[in-house]
Amino acid sequence: MKEKTPTKRALVILGSPRKNGNSSILAEQISKGLRSTGAKVETIFLQGLKIAPCKSCYACQKHDSKGCATKDDMQAIYLKLIQAEAWVIASPVYWFTMSAQTKIFMDRCFGLPAYAKNPFLGKRIAIAMSYGDTDPFTSGCINALRTFQDAFRYTGSKIVGMVYGSAMKAGEIKLNEALMQEAENLGKRLIKI
Question: Which residues pair with 14 in a beta bridge?
């Protein structure tokens, strides 16, 4: 009898205030690639959630920690992050870096080790970003990408790939067919089956 392979899970974090914004469209293309491999994909739209900034109280870092001291919608996200083999983090560029919604999420990930031992280790991550400038350097996109690289290098996670492109109006990123294909291909290789 053939043993059934467990379904791989991916969690998509949308850090844009627009559900159908350009970074969300890139994340959906990555999700399309993920689903084509048989992965189960869940999407979380941060804009509609109540997630407070980190208070730097260090309650989550204590030896006998019961988790983050701030009880809000991040509590449910912690468990989903732990269960997923892969994460997709999507954000537009706001004022030369990631959106505030994305930054609060990233800051609150500081508490994740209170919920599982080595929760970042082995996670496979994709980053999707959009910006209104014509250049990833002058737009600040590179600043955000470097922040993701530094954070996930520190945690022992692997950034499998990053997709990013210029688009000002909502939905405009769809016109970049090469980028759309690149995003889908990233999804196909994000989870190892």
Answer: 45, 90
How many domains does the chain contain in total? Answer: 1
Q: Residue 30's domain spans which residues?
A: 9-190
- Is position 169 within any domain? yes
Residue 192: predicted pLDDT: 77
Longest dimension (CA), the chain: 57
Q: What is the pTM for the complete model shown?
A: 0.94
Q: How confident is the model at residue 1 (pLDDT cuts 50, 70, 90)?
A: low
Mean pLDDT of 171-191: 97
Q: What is the CATH number of the domain that holds 58?
A: 3.40.50.360
Angle separating helix axes 100-108 and 74-83, nearest 10 degrees: 70
Q: How far does CA 117 lie from the centroid of its chain?
A: 20
Query: At 188, phi and psi to the nearest 5?
Result: -65, -25
In a domain, residue 4? The reply is no
Determine, yes or no, domain membership for 1: no
Q: Exposure string (b/e) for 79-107, b if CB count within 10 Å is 16 or more? A: eebeebbbbbbbbbbbeebbbebbbbbbb
- How far apart CA 38 and CA 11 sit, in angstroms, is 14
Report the helix count and the strand count for the chain, using DSSP H and E.
Answer: 5, 6
Asked if the structure places residue 85 within a domain, the reply is yes
